[in-house]
Amino acid sequence: xxxxxxxxxxxxxxxxxxxxxxxxxxxxxxxxxxxxxxxxxxxxxxxxxxxxxxxxxxxxxxxxxxxxxxxxxxxxxxxxxxxxxxxxxxxxxxxxxxxxxxxxxxxxxxxxxxxxxxxxxxxxxxxxxxxxxxxxxxxxxxxxxxxxxxxxxxxxxxxxxxxxxxxxxxxxxxxxxxxxxxxxxxxxxxxxxxxxxxxxxxxxxxxxxxxxxxxxxxxxxxxxxxxxxxxxxxxxxxxxxxxxxxxxxxxxxxxxxxxxxxxxxxxxxxxxxxxxxxxxxxxxxxxxxxxxxxxxxxxxxxxxxxxxxxxxxxxxxxxxxxxxx
Amino acid sequence: xxxxxxxxxxxxxxxxxxxxxxxxxxxxxxxxxxxxxxxxxxxxxxxxxxxxxxxxxxxxxxxxxxxxxxxxxxxxxxxxxxxxxxxxxxxxxxxxxxxxxxxxxxxxxxxxxxxxxxxxxxxxxxxxxxxxxxxxxxxxxxxxxxxxxxxxxxxxxxxxxxxxxxxxxxxxxxxxxxxxxxxxxxxxxxxxxxxxxxxxxxxxxxxxxxxxxxxxxxxxxxxxxxxxxxxxxxxxxxxxxxxxxxxxxxxxxxxxxxxxxxxxxxxxxxxxxxxxxxxxxxxxxxxxxxxxxxxxxxxxxxxxxxxxxxxxxxxxxxxxxxxxx
Lengths: 325, 325
What we know:
Chains A, B: It comes from Oceanobacillus kapialis. Chains A, B: Residues 10-322 form the Enoyl reductase (ER) domain. The structure is a homodimer. By secondary structure, chain A is α/β, with parallel strands linked by helices. Chain A has two domains: 2-117 and 267-323, Quinone Oxidoreductase, Chain A, domain 1 (Alpha-Beta Complex); 121-260, 3-Layer(aba) Sandwich (Rossmann fold). Chain A is 30% helix and 27% strand. Chain A contains eleven helices and 17 strands. Chain A has helices at residues 41-47, 111-115, 118-131, 148-160, 172-181, 194-201, 219-225, 248-253, 268-281, 284-287, 304-312; strands at residues 2-6, 15-19, 29-38, 62-70, 81-85, 94-98, 103-104, 139-142, 164-169, 185-188, 207-212, 226-234, 242-243, 246-247, 257-260, 295-300, 319-323. In chain A, the strands form three sheets. In chain A, strands 3, 4, 5, 6, 7, 16 and 17 form a seven-stranded mixed sheet that branches. A six-stranded parallel sheet of chain A has the order 10-9-8-11-12-15, sandwiched between helices. In chain A, strands 1-2 form a two-stranded antiparallel ribbon. In chain A, α4 (148-160) links the parallel β8 and β9. In chain A, α3 crosses α4 (148-160) and α6 runs parallel beside α7. The longest helix of chain A is centred in the middle third of the chain and has 14 residues, at 118-131. The first copy, chain A, starts with a strand and ends with a strand. Chain A binds chain B through residues 215-216, 234-237, 241-249, 251-262, 265-266, and chain B through 215-216, 234-237, 241-249, 251-262, 265-266. β13 of chain A pairs antiparallel with β14 (246-247) of chain B.
């Protein structure tokens, strides 16, 4: 089968299509004829050789496609349209997936849309509800509102809670889009001090939950923005990983809960439970048109390198998809 | 009545006994004839004028004594021996306490022992179970094992879980004492690298829960010591508050939950619920002799300044008590 592999750890030019052996499903797994895969930042980190948790030379942690074979104890009929997280190997014509992580694609969604769902919606769901414990009448601050996880988080917070949603983005276009998805307050971080705006929007109480993809460069302002007893979930370090001069006393005085997380390296069991919870509470809302898969652009398999470059330029609103056939 | 008040923000010499007006219980409160109060680090911070949450010129956040008057809706009979947290005003002959925070003193305990219980045992209970979510077969690392909260945490972890208990202290005497309370592994932080010892004692898995009173100076080693998905509860900054060069990526990769907390500034409702939970699960173990109130030394009211100095010298094992009559 054809697959996109990494020549040597490095830039996007290291990605190329190669013929490799087709995988076979083991016990509890299904083999999927992959129609679409989506690009994630974790793929870029893996491509650069900076993370140790993906041994698979084929990148890609989420796919949508059709089940073509089911291993022992994997009770999904051949022909079922599914989407979900894979343990690497997603940028390929065929990939194996633990059956308990496969979600049936809602009828009204295309494969391009389906591949845009698992990673960002599961991450946003985990961050808002499992880690952030967002409850009613609270306020959530979602950074990078135009990103894949950002657009998913805004929609989930809107549909599943009555929380006040504050989001940051770097352009009016992105902020308008965030409003259309349900954000109450949009802050242009290039022109406004987001900490001041968050305090204004919350009568100085601050945000109860922060989704932080940015890390170091936002540290001080996030600390100002967070409410007493706030949950600060760190899921990315786009603004750098190294913070100087952290005042622990401020973390204590505000009783901050800082929770670092990454979805990809989590256990199979965790992903199974998260998928199950999400499929129960959120998946039906796609069929009803209340949640939308947001596709920025679709690339053919041969142009996966360009798809990576597009993400690295931070120009996308929503997900970048690669078609595998 | 006589009370210990702070002249001006500053050192222990600012404490002196003065005649002040006796408080009266409001709705939901009881008036207590205070027999004993205990010294806490939060008192020292208040004495220095460094914290803004205590307006009461009389220090002291925990007392033991006898109920002498009950306000409206405070259903505790006059004469009952009680102990618990007060909102300041503890270093005095009389103090008011919300009735829903008063715990009946177990018969076999003296007032000296009773005053040694509320703050440290409630803090340790909150840290281990409400914030640390310590569960069976896990490992807990308790720093400052000889301190008030340390000795309480070791005992609670021993009596209420089967967790492996690792503790650090600065002398053989303190470590021996920690072992006698139930610690499995003792590390002399002056002679050993505690992170290495924790990894040795856990087959490199690390500690699932860390009780951190130290802050900045232990940051790097705590990060090395903590397990994946570990809960790191920050309840003090004896080793400094300012950390340089924090690597957020390590917090994410280990999926650390860092939780800052302080008990004193929490709401009345929080203290009520915590007291209730503790009284149900832990208090009966004092009557049975399975939990011990640990008293280091008892000072007369006039020597409260010396009691503060004794704490500031870090020489105590267990609590420092002041007799109010």
